[in-house]
Amino acid sequence: MNPHSFDAAVTLTPLTTGADAAAPGRFTGVSSPAYWNMIGPYGGITAATAMQAVMQHPGRLGEPIALTVNYASALGPGPFTVQATPVRTNRSTQHWSVSLSQADAAGAEGVVMTATAVTAARRQTWGVSDRPMPAVAPPADAERLTLKAGVEWINRYEMRPLAGRFPDVWDGSGTHSLSRLWVRDDPPRPLDFPSLAALADVFFPRVWLRRATRVPVGTVSMTIHFHADSGQLAESGDGFLLGQAEAQAFRNGFFDQTAQLWSGSGTLLVTTSQTVYYKE
Amino acid sequence: MNPHSFDAAVTLTPLTTGADAAAPGRFTGVSSPAYWNMIGPYGGITAATAMQAVMQHPGRLGEPIALTVNYASALGPGPFTVQATPVRTNRSTQHWSVSLSQADAAGAEGVVMTATAVTAARRQTWGVSDRPMPAVAPPADAERLTLKAGVEWINRYEMRPLAGRFPDVWDGSGTHSLSRLWVRDDPPRPLDFPSLAALADVFFPRVWLRRATRVPVGTVSMTIHFHADSGQLAESGDGFLLGQAEAQAFRNGFFDQTAQLWSGSGTLLVTTSQTVYYKE
To answer: Which pLDDT band, with edges at 50, 70 and 90, does A1 fall under?
Structure first.
């Protein structure tokens, strides 16, 4: 049986020989054609790769609390290197620096992504969720998104839009930036922290919805706050998540995109925000 | 005339002699008693210090778009070192890694803060703000916050709460986490990117409001998305900003805190989110 395309995409091989043997957290991977976007892999899969490097590090403490990924340059086809370094380990929290680099056409290694992450040993405390899942139709009642001439990564997700659909016509008629959809890996796959990081980027650029105009865009920086622990991810299993995304401001080349993802049973799993470049 | 306490607090001196002469972006600073919080400086002033290191770097391209600051350990009194490194410079964007370190009691240098930032040359584009400033009373109609036995940094800001006030009694009676206030430096000071970064952290911990219970807390990671350029900061001048903060989820030791800051005339300047540790 072949591995799931997500597992194949985030496979990292530790560099444990030669000079690198003394540096745990250094891995090689290969960028995935199965998650290809316009000019490089889907940003979510690159975020997942950063998360994966932290998860695979032998010295990791606890589970992810926060991840910020900065897209410095387009990742190209072929191999890349990821380095995850625990820069500070406290009693119950650990701070990570991550970078992904790739050789350019001339063979020079360049930084393609930087990231920081925080992992922590969670303890049971008082808690409350003040962002309840919106009341929406169940997945079976929402039609699956099909895009003609879509990019490849879209096919790795089963998306069932509920509101704020991908524009059918680009006529400048947009009035808001709020989207809701059911989403899961296709084929379904049990949720883990890397796949949840990828899902945080699943929303199409808010500027396309807001303007009904398809301008060039690119995510510059994305931050994810994880509210769920691995037990709650296991409860979510391979079921649909409800995603919601909205922008607050579009100005002089950049807009923000904030989003939430809930499990099918209504547990808020992540809140996230990103800043996205747009042209014109 | 003495410098403003904010300028004194974020003063960084380049290390340009000896082995460090080849490494621009390496600075020394001293942690500021004027912005002291419980066990270290106010987190906002540490964020401002990271921003300042980027702003002072001789190789900087453009203005801040995004800043993520991770609080790895408590900063103590005395000198520290900041390193700001442009890890990737593109045609119109630049990606930064920043770290702040300090010697511990035994003289060993440890990482206290890591940060990433993105700066960019903005171009004029289509734009819209979908997060209008809430309709509130003007600053003159809102009473200034005074806290008995408050921490020192509170005195560096003129805060005029409008809603979601700091609890008077800790009786577990909280029902929501939304606060609004007018705020500016005290004495007033023209807004710049470092001071705006500091102001993004000005909201007291949402868990105190939500629970009316004063549990130990500490910000772990804060992300700021800057929507304003320096021209819009100049328009804001030294006037009041309207701040609004709210949490989405509190669970097993961590909650998120999202916020917005508008200029007095209603321009959305920053949107921000942080994840905060809480005990019990």
So the answer is: confident
